């Protein structure tokens, strides 16, 4: 599967939301850090990328932690989320896939399928809580990948 990234952008946090520090819960502190990825596959016809970005922008004010960034200050202070205008926003990757979606269904875990995920560098963690990759296939099919940590 050949996946070509066309554009990477950040949907900013809602400008109307004040910056706020949200402490991690005790559950956040004891749970291991791991990434959760969900793929949604759609056959054509599909909305435009602009329509998807507009929908994402309309949804994000209702879930401010999705545009937050994780902050650590000082050696002893617990980490916390910074939401609102001080957040990192949601990272969005637009990509095209040269093959047909039907050639890859059902979507089963594999190294090839990982190409549909937003790139995550484990050596230098991303400041973004939400990463989205919009994958458009040659047939008009669409796979939207949502990735959170």
Automatic annotation (TrEMBL):
Entry superkingdom: Eukaryota
InterPro entries the record matches: CAT-like_dom_sf, Cyclic_Pdiesterase, Plant_Fungal_Acyltransferase
Keywords per UniProt: Acyltransferase, Transferase
GO molecular function per UniProt: hydroxycinnamoyltransferase activity
Family according to the record: Belongs to the plant acyltransferase family.
Name of this chain's protein: Uncharacterized protein
Provenance organism: Oryza sativa subsp. japonica
């Amino acid at each position: 599967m050949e996946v070509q990234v066309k554009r990477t952008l950040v949907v900013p946090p809602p400008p109307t939301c004040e910056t706020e520090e949200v402490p991690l819960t005790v559950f956040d502190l004891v749970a291991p850090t791991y990434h959760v990825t969900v793929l949604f596959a759609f056959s054509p016809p599909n909305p435009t990328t602009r329509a998807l970005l507009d929908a994402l922008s309309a949804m994000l004010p209702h879930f401010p932690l999705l545009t937050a960034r994780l902050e650590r200050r000082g050696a002893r202070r617990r980490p916390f989320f910074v939401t609102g205008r001080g957040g990192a926003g949601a990272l969005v990757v637009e990509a095209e896939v040269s093959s047909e979606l039907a050639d890859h269904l059902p979507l089963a875990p594999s190294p090839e399928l990982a190409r549909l995920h937003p790139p995550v560098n484990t050596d230098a963690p991303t400041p973004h809580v939400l990463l989205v990759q919009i994958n458009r296939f040659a047939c008009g099919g669409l796979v939207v990948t949502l990735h959170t940590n």
